[in-house]
Structures are given as C-alpha cells and as structure tokens.
User: Fold YNCE-like beta-propeller domain-containing protein from Microbispora catharanthi.
Amino acid sequence: MMLGGFALAGCGARPPAPRAEPSGAVPSRGASTPPASASPSPDAAASLEARSRAQVDVYAADRPGMLSPVVKGFRSLVYVPNSESGTVDVIDPETYRIVRHFTVGALPQHVVPSWDLKTLWVNNNRGNSLTPIDPRTGRPGRPVPVEDPYNLYFSPDGKYALVMAERNNQLDLRDPHSMKLLRSLSLPCRGINHGDFTADGSVFLASCEFSGDLVVLDWRTPSVIRHIHLGHMSMPQDVKLSPDGTVFYVADMERHGVWLVDAATYKVMRFLPTGRGAHGLYVSRDSRHLYVSNRGEGSVSVVSFRKRKVVDVWRIPGGGSPDMGGVSADGTKLWLSGRYHGVVYVFDTRDGRVVRTIPVGAGPHGLCVYPQPGRYSLGHTGIFR
Assistant:
C-alpha cells in the first residue's frame, strides 16, 4: 500500500511474485531424526502431558505488578514510531497526550526493549540505523549504524541481538550492546520479519512474509532446521508461542487468520480464521487469551488458548487499521497503532471498547508500551519472559 508517495516496507508491502517453494515442513540439509525411544502407555502419556501443560506458563513472569527492579523507576510511556514521518511520538498513558516528539532515521518500524530492559531501540529500516532511547528519561541517544534493521529480537541468554534484515533475506547476529555484527545467516525465504522462541529458548520460529514461509532456526549455530512453505497466497506476520509452550500462533494477513504450528514437530496443525488482514499477536496478562489485530477490517479477535478458537471480536467504530503494539503493565489496556489512519487505538481489555483514539504521525507501526512486567526481553515490541 502506498503512503505519501512510497510503499511502507514490511508487514504488507508485497514485492514481486515470490519464487516457488516446496510445500510442507522440509528438513534442512544435515538435519537428522532422533532415535526412537520406549513409549509409555497411552493413558500414562496423556496424564503426563496434562500435568506438564498445567505446570508450564512461559508468561508466568508477565503478570500485573511483576516489574523487574531494573525498570521500577522508569516512567510509564508509550513509544510510537511513525514510519512515513521518520519520527517517534511519546505518549503519557495516563493523560493520553503526546509528551515528546523527535526525529529518527528513515522508515522507523518498531521500538524494541533490549534484553537487559535498560534500552529501547528504534529500528530505522531504510535509515540503516538503530536509535537508542533511555527509558528513564524517554529521550533518544546517538544512532548506531546497523544495516537493514526491520525488526529486532534477543537470544534468551542475552548474548545476541538478532536483527531481522528483511530486504537482505538474512538474520544478523550482533553484540546486544554495541550492535557490532558477529555472524549472518542467509535464509531460503524472502522478507523475514517476526518470530518467537520455543519454551526452552533453543529454537527460533520466524516468518517470511514475501514468500509465504516459516523458517525454524537454531540461533546458536546459526542454521536452518526446517523450512515450511504455507502457500503462495500466504503472507505470515507476527508469531507468538502459547503459554504452555506447545503451539506457535502465526498471523497470516492474506489468509485472514492464524496458523497453529506444533512447537515440538514444527508441523502445521490447522488454520484459524480471525478477521481480514490478521497481523499482530498479543498475550493477555493472565495468559488466557491471544489478541489478534485484524488490520484490514478494523477489529481485534480474542482467541482462547484453552479452546483454540475465537471467543470475542472487538470492533473499532467506523473501522480502522490496528497494527502493532502491546498490553499495558496492568493488563487493562491494549495499545495498537493505526497504520493507515495516523492514530493510536487504546482498547479496554475488560470489555473491548476503544477508549481513546490518539492522533500521531504518519504511518505509525510497532509501538512499544514500556515498562512491562517480565525478567528479560526477547525483543519485538515487547515479548517478555
């Protein structure tokens, strides 16, 4: 889609037709199948699985009030990167007013909390730089040169910054503080931009929107473990792991819903329709629901993790373009950018009402609500564990 004379990169900017890829989950070269082991009886296995799922919640540290000592002195603010304007608007979530506005590099895509929670990074995609923000003051620092930073994640051990180099079709591993390039991994897909980690943190599942693919990555090697082609009609977007660690949810903007992918076998389980232009994925503070922003129809679908189905739909009066954002620290608000309307929407998560629509710059994208509960950040606009 064109805005102000140019197309916004990523998250829906379709380049020339993707090359054909084989369907299904395909092991990468050198991948091996683990040896079979003795299996418990069906009843014992079911009981063990039920107990395991009941005990696991990868978001257990993200409950209201569970702020790390690192962030407890930080002022609560919402940071909005305006892709077309090349600026960031900073909003006070109490008054819903913009309290700061500053210029950054060209085409800022997301504002990303660092693994150690001490820095926010503005991803200046076309500007080939990252602008640091001090969350204690909300003020920007000197930009750091980084090529093609569409999105940014951090390895679970905090050793690497993972730059999603979308136009270069590669994953760049960098020092998480200096952002010095350490290693690069070329990918068998086009348009890598979103992802999430398995519960044990060993594997990273990433989406490639321009070729309709998912890639399963061992970030430590780094290497491609699996390559999953969803189809030429697919445009996968945000990725989020279920609280019990068993399923990856992958938004698909062209298929208008989310894919469910087994987090152990990496096989596609099924597709769940949500709404037109399914885009961003956010977990409720009680780990019960997944909020899916449907950018093409101005709505948010509420998916029950237990039932694996849509249980509610919140609609923006008059329509809109809800994109990326995050949940407030207390869990009562969902903040989403209005990508094609130059606004930010604030939903009350208790009843789904839009309580505020705040004008910002042009092309607002991956806004960040900060601080949020959690021990460390895995990146994007706020994936905390």
